[in-house]
Amino acid sequence: xxxxxxxxxxxxxxxxxxxxxxxxxxxxxxxxxxxxxxxxxxxxxxxxxxxxxxxxxxxxxxxxxxxxxxxxxxxxxxxxxxxxxxxxxxxxxxxxxxxxxxx
Length: 103
What we know:
This protein is of the alpha+beta class. The protein has a single domain (5-93), classed as YaeB-like fold. It has helices spanning 10-24, 28-43; strands spanning 5-8, 66-70, 74-81, 84-92. The chain has a four-stranded mixed β-sheet with strand order 1-4-3-2. Strand 3 (74-81) and strand 4 (84-92) form a beta hairpin. It is globular. The termini are far apart. 21% of the residues are buried.
């Protein structure tokens, strides 16, 4: 089975940090668990990244973007390019996030 190279953009890394900082206000242990869960889910995309559905916001991205749901709360937006998976955003689905996609 082919293994893809995972690339997490700086914007996605900032998104993850923001999510973890938010949870850190409540619990350090929960924040650590969240960070581990997010990175474990992202690393799972190294195998069969096409398993997730296409993200339907064509104006936000001029190319095919897939979404990976993490812990039923976070959405990783990524694309598969040759032998790489590029993570563009990791957003909290409980927020109004449309504006984030056009930054």
